[in-house]
Here is the input.
Amino acid sequence: MASSRLAAPRGAPSCRPDPRPVLARPNRLTRGAEYKAVVRRGRRCAATHTVTYVNSSAAETTPRFGFIVSRQVGSAVVRNTVRRRLKAVCAESLPAVAPGNDIVIRALPGAATASFADLRAEVNRCLSRRAA
Here is the structure.
């Protein structure tokens, strides 16, 4: 017996590249021990909406970024929005960061209401002071 519903043909996925900058896997911190080492041993730069920790090493590896956005920032939707904004800012500033730096950015509760421009200015200021 044939189905009475006609299936719509599926289109090919879009071939256009995603215009948003993205952090590749080699540029991300992935393990909890790595986050802990950067936060404990790294130099700290505090701003209104973020706290940035930078741990430099002698190794000539690509800079790596990690993000901490706690529940105090807001709901899951708000936390993910803040994290995506921080990732975009870091992807933009990746060429200016010196090799061998591990960076963790902790979002403070005020980051939920901060504009993208404010977050960009804060992160760029801290990265230029600590990781350039």
The CA atoms of residues 29 and 66 lie 5 Å apart.
